[in-house]
Amino acid sequence: MKVQVPRALLTQVLQKVHGAADRKVHMPILSNVLIDATEPSQEVEFTATDLELSLWTKMGATVEEPGRLTVSAKKLVEIVRELPHELVQLQEAPGNRLIIMAGRSRFELATIPADDFPFVNFFPGITLSPCDPSLLRKCLAKTQYGIPLDDDPFSMPGVFCHFQEPDAIRFVSSDGHRLSLYEVPSGSFQGLSFNGGIIIPRKGAQEILRILEKEEKSESVFWGIHENALIVQTQDTLMSVQLLEGEFPEYQLIIPEERPHFFAVETDPLFAALKRVGILTDQRWRHVRFHITENSLELESGNPELGQATDSVDITYTGEPFSIAFNLRYVLDALQAMESAEVRFEWVDQYHGGVFVGPDDPGYLGLIMPMVI
What are phi and psi of 362, to 5 degrees? Predict the structure, then answer.
């Protein structure tokens, strides 16, 4: 194999496939990207997989000699990012080596034969439906922060796409301490049937977001479900995500239907005040206290080893004084996902979760369970 490719375009392609490769290196071949250069089409194809998530993409190139090989996805993208010249040459060399050259820079990477790369099935015969990339990106971006990071028998490490016939589709995530929900009309995604719901795993949601960031203005995004796989297709990329099996927790049960108490506050001043008091929090002392009185919210955080911080913001509230504590990071995440100049904080009592909603972002809801300090 011997090809020449533009560095900037190669960097974009490698950043795309790098995320699909296995980061835990259970099998060395799964941390590699398969590179397939074909002479007639003057294209180079790239494929990566961890057996649960697979991605294929292609780019135009000058193919002098066709060939197939696999090489470390992580090291290849790190090298290409730092190359000083805009034209990169990739050349297969004896001894299972790939030579990367640009200008006066030369790198040599070990390769594994392409025949050792696992078969990747993107189900080419299935019917895919058009998808609004900006809307799908919004649905995932607003909810993926609530996916649990650690294995937990009481939660699912993914985003639940819950089809509520006939009115709405809900995207939901929860780690047991917080819940994020974004609801859109059922007609927003025509032609795709969830059969009640699907659960997109954490890595799948992240990689779909990564692809959609480049496709927001494109009309050529399609998706579909085959057996237990979600397929996403753009103009030059195919992704297959193995969906999670199992039942998503009954999230509706923890969202209070009636929330009689609330205050309203401008989002930016609240977010800035939370960032300030957060300076004195750490992994052990992560809480922020809300002290709510008439038209005033006092925020308090503290660390016995460092000190205490307080700040206050003006709010719209009339009622009895009320205090509650939350994980500060959870509050910031909920506010960052909201697209509203004003936020309403609604609650039942100190034992139930506090709910953050915004009048300018009607489909979004962030629920956070209180901390016991």
Answer: -65, -25
For 124-167, strand residue ranges (E) read 129-130, 158-164
Contact by Cβ (8 Å): 129, 41: no
Interior/surface letters 66-93, b for 16+ CB within 10 angstroms, e for the rest: ebbbbbbbbbbbebbeebeeeebbbbbe
pLDDT tens digits for range 236-277: 999 999 999 989 999 999 999 999 999 999 999 999 999 999
Host domain of residue 282: 255-368
171: domain CATH number?
Answer: 3.10.150.10
Q: How far apart are CA 173 and CA 184, in angstroms?
A: 15
DSSP for 247-279 reads PPP-GGGGS-S---EEEEEEHHHHHHHHHHHGG
121 is a domain residue: no
Q: pLDDT tens digit string along 5-45? A: 999 999 999 999 999 998 776 789 999 999 999 988 899 99
pTM of the model: 0.92
Pairing of strands 168-174, 178-185: antiparallel
72 φ, ψ (degrees, to nearest 5): -55, 120
- CA atoms of 143 and 208, how far apart (whole Å): 13
Burial class (CB in 10 A: 0-12, 13-18, 19+), 132: middle
Q: Do both 150 and 262 map to the same domain? A: no
Whether residue 108 is found in the same domain as residue 150: no
- Is residue 213 one of the residues assigned to a domain? yes
